[in-house]
Amino acid sequence: QVQLVESGGGSVQSGGSLRLSCAVSGYFYSSYCMGWFRQAPGKEREGVVAIDHDGSTSYADSVKGRFTISQDNTKSTLYLEMDNLKPEDTAIYCCAADPSGALGADFRLERGLFAYWGQGTQVTVSS
């Protein structure tokens, strides 16, 4: 079983930055895919970015050039660096993980195909 716990959310003004963290615990396969999703009030969940076991990434068009996904050397923590934040980035952000190495980051991100999910952390961007 894999547990995911997010942290780092908060309130910032437009143009500001935040870094989210996702602590990974439990058994973790060497072949994996991890990602960040977000859901704003009244809207459907949206895939933000995913990273596959080979390091390949897939970003939503809305965050390209502003958000960056990364991991620490032990792969026990997933990060999401968010720069130039906009009010439309306001949402609950969740990290997700899947032990399968198949399908690819973009395919999983687009369809939300992840087996494990965190509870989420709130990000609020004011204008």
Model description:
By secondary structure, the protein is mainly beta. It is 6% helix and 50% strand. A hairpin with a 4-residue loop joins strand 5 (46-52) and strand 6. The longest helix has 7 residues, at 105-111. The termini are far apart.
Task: Describe what is shown at a glance.
By secondary structure, this protein is mostly beta strands. Helix content is 6%, strand content 50%.
How would you spell out the order of helices and strands?
Answer: EEEEEEEEEHEE
Helical proportion?
A: under 10%
Content of β-strand: over 45%
Cα-based radius of gyration, to the nearest Å: 14 Å
Total E-strand runs:
11
Main sheet properties = 7 strands, mixed
Overall shape: it is: globular
Low-confidence stretches: none
Structural class: mainly beta
Give the overall pLDDT as a whole number: 93
Distance between the termini: 40 Å
Number of H/I helices: 1
